[in-house]
Design brief:
about 15% strand, binds ligand G3I, globular, 8-stranded parallel β-barrel, TIM Barrel
């Protein structure tokens, strides 16, 4: 009898233990931080710009993290004109195809970046076979064919396009580019017209940096109104959001939101990263032609990011995401410009060869827990 009792006690104990450990398992699961994409479901997409190794799966770890954390993809380089259409009669679709396949297979909201830009566009685009500048009509034809081909190829899969990128100077005037000098200011409306014709269901965006500067923002609002006046829908403006730890002030970012919303335009934060390094001669934004000479003083964290700065980075991300949440009805997407710190363009701009720490994942593919906590904190 006693033996039976003991056996029964042991059996009960075993059941309790397994329930407890099971509960622990559940407990762990429910307290484990949500993936970013899940934490912001119903609010806005959380995206990441990916490079070729990540798109093709050569960077397996990177690809796993991308699938785990994000629900929107942007191509960091592979849909730019010089990559996808390097020669007049040659398109190079392999990398872009891999990118779109990854996004499609993983059910992501896929972005196309970018159709018309002053940078990374080969010279042949603007010239005839003899090297003479094209006429307006001839350049419009090149533009139309490129857009019809690229947008057409991914119709229904790429859901949103950065149709025109960085057409403005920081003072809000139109940037001098070959597009503008040959076609005229309406090269922008034309690009949108061609993109809309190629995929009427795709979202179309005007994308630029430093839209926290009021003059530049006014320029972007004017551009978007001109496009809309032609009856072409503009789904949102893209504020790239290449920011620093202290600039722009949060109030300036809020004005980006309130001013565009007042003008009837939604806002996506399309290339978010936060440089933690000293300002290089006051260069801000993202003009790829800016270059500053290397100096050790500009590169203080080669041995790792001090905890204090990591905390500042976390707080900065937290306050930005709190703002995005506040205006969630008019924010469609927030996209990090790169997965890990190792991948970031900010290691080489505006100074080549620095060690920057602007993103969510570190160089070992580890999520930066304080940053993650601050970002997820805004959802509670
Ligand atoms: O792939 C080649 C490689 O074959 C070659 O050996 C190497 C030598 O320099 O260059 C490699 O290409 C580089 C490419 O990034 C891929 O790493 C280009 O030189 C370099 O200019 C290019 O920089 C990109 C830059 O745009 C210019 O296209 C950055 O990765 C990319 O992050 C950056 O993204 C832009 C957005 O499109 C628009 N907004 C600003 C943002 C930051 O500049």
């Amino acid at each position: 009898m006693k033996k039976g009792y003991t056996f029964f006690t042991l059996f009960l104990l075993a059941v309790c233990c397994s329930v407890l450990s099971c509960n622990n398992g559940v407990q762990k699961k429910t307290t484990a931080p949500l993936a970013l994409k899940d934490a912001f479901t119903g609010k806005f997409y959380v995206g990441v710009a990916i490079n070729r190794k990540q798109a093709t799966g050569q960077d397996i770890k990177g690809q796993q993290l991308i699938k785990q954390q994000f629900n929107s993809l942007s191509p960091e380089n592979d849909l730019k004109w010089q990559n996808i259409h390097p020669e007049r009669s040659r398109y190079a679709f392999d990398a872009a195809d891999a990118y779109v396949k990854l996004g499609t297979d993983s059910g992501m909201f896929i972005i196309g970046h970018t159709l018309v830009w002053h940078s990374q566009t080969p010279d042949w685009v603007f010239e005839d076979a003899q090297g003479k500048p094209l006429t307006r009509d001839a350049l419009l034809k090149v533009m139309q064919q490129h857009i019809a081909t690229v947008v057409g190829r991914y119709k229904g899969r790429i859901k949103g396009w950065d149709v025109v990128n960085e057409a403005l100077n920081d003072d809000g005037t139109m940037r001098d580019s070959k597009w503008r000098s040959i076609i005229g200011d309406d090269f922008i409306e034309k690009a949108f017209e061609f993109a809309h014709a190629a995929d009427p269901d795709a979202e179309l965006y005007y994308n630029d940096y430093n839209l926290y500067k009021p003059e530049k923002r006014a320029g972007a609002i004017a551009i978007i109104n001109r496009i809309k006046a032609k009856g072409i829908p503009v789904a949102a403006v893209g504020e790239q959001a290449h920011y620093g730890l202290v600039y722009p002030a949060l109030a300036e970012v809020e004005r980006v939101l309130t001013d565009f919303i007042k003008a009837g335009i939604d806002v996506n934060f399309t290339e978010l990263d936060i440089s933690v390094l000293p300002d290089a001669q006051g260069v801000d934004g993202a003009d790829v032609s800016n270059a500053v000479r290397y100096d050790d003083k500009l590169n203080p964290y080669t041995d790792g990011l001090p905890d204090k700065v990591q905390q500042e980075l976390a707080k900065r991300y937290g306050s930005l995401f709190a703002l995005f949440m506040k205006y969630q009805d008019n924010v469609g997407r927030v996209t990090f410009w790169g997965l890990t710190d190792e991948d970031s363009w900010l290691n080489n701009w505006p100074v080549r060869g620095r060690t920057n720490y602007p993103l969510l994942f570190d160089r070992n593919y580890e999520i930066k827990v304080p940053v993650q906590q601050e970002i997820l904190g805004v959802t509670r």
